[in-house]
Design a protein that fits this description.
single chain; metalloprotease; about 80% helix; hydrolase; about 325 residues; 10 helices; transmembrane helix; PrsW; transmembrane; mainly alpha
Length: about 325
């Protein structure tokens, strides 16, 4: 340790005086040993504490949705089908990895964790939403940029960081795991929206067949899911970059989450306000906008991946 990183007492007297518990420290006493052991336990179990918290929130928030899907299997089928477009993008990114294709186990762990961690985002979004309801005109814009985008992209990033970080062997591996986290998040979000559409139609006398309402919701959600995959792929890319640039890992991670959160917030803001600005806004216009938006975002991600791929081939061709 250099002098400018030392306490002044340690800098002047280190080596000539016992400075234990004064300006230096090492485990000596029984209490010191207990402290070291307790820290080791907390440090090793921190990810499990996070997972347990997410599991408890998941059960509390989404148990009714899961039970409804079990009682009404057709809702589960619709939820699964609504995730197919997002799954196709994940498959493309996984297959197109220019290095080694990622193994199933960390992919599955990331997928499950992203489903569980979605409950954390749901709780935070619900608690903070009322604060923005009082802000005129731009309240929802602020909500999307300050809460929804950052929180949802952070929990998807957490799923990768907790579940698959050790399996990232190249920068682009982070893209695959980020995409899988987006798939898990989209899957549980789709299931939630589909079940809500079903129950709302069931309780309304003039709403038509509940299963028709669920089918309509599933159709619209099928176009929304790919966005989650693309946004978190950016955050995953920068997590991979951070792993191999440890001196600047923190800022790199923040950059990735910021990019994902801003794109996410732009999308949410657009689909919230465009129906108010464009006369005759309908499902067809919605689908057209979502596809166009995802194509632009997907192209930006594709360019980033192609740059890495070209350099990878240069690095390995010799």
């Amino acid at each position: 340790m250099s002098d400018d990183e030392s306490d002044p007492v340690a800098a002047a007297l280190s080596g000539s005086t016992d400075l234990y518990d004064i300006a230096d420290w090492e485990p000596r006493s029984a209490l010191d040993g207990i402290s070291v052991s307790l820290y080791g336990l907390l440090h090793a179990s921190r990810r499990w504490l996070l997972i347990v918290l997410a599991l408890l929130l998941f059960v509390a928030q989404l148990a009714a949705t899961i039970l409804l899907a079990i009682r009404q299997p057709e809702l589960g089928v619709l939820a699964a089908l609504s995730a197919v477009p997002a799954l196709a993008i994940v498959g493309y990114l996984w297959y197109g990895d220019p290095t080694n294709r990622e193994p199933l186990e960390p992919l599955a762990i990331t997928f499950v964790l992203s489903i569980l961690f979605a409950s954390i985002a749901a709780l935070v979004n619900t608690l903070l939403n009322p604060l923005f309801q009082f802000v005129p005109v731009v309240g929802m814009v602020l909500y999307f940029f300050l809460v929804v985008g950052p929180i949802e992209e952070t929990v998807k990033w957490l799923a990768v960081r907790v579940g698959a970080f050790g399996s990232i062997n190249a920068v682009v591996d982070g893209v695959v795991y980020g995409a899988v986290a987006g798939l898990g998040f989209a899957s549980i979000e789709n299931a939630l929206y589909i079940s809500q559409g079903y129950t709302q139609a069931l309780s309304a006398q003039d709403a038509g067949e509940p299963i028709v309402a669920a089918l309509q919701t599933a159709t619209s959600r099928a176009f929304v899911g790919p966005g989650h995959v693309l946004y978190s792929s950016f955050a995953g890319y920068y997590l991979g970059l951070a792993k191999f640039n440890s001196d600047n890992a923190g800022p790199i991670v923040v950059k990735g989450i910021l990019i994902a959160a801003v794109i996410h917030a732009i999308y949410n803001t657009s689909v919230t306000y465009l129906p108010q600005l464009i006369p005759g806004w309908n499902l067809l216009l919605f689908v057209g906008f979502v596809i166009s938006f995802d194509l632009v975002v997907g192209y930006l991600l594709y360019r980033k991946l192609k740059r890495y791929q070209s350099h990878y081939h240069r690095a390995t061709s010799g």
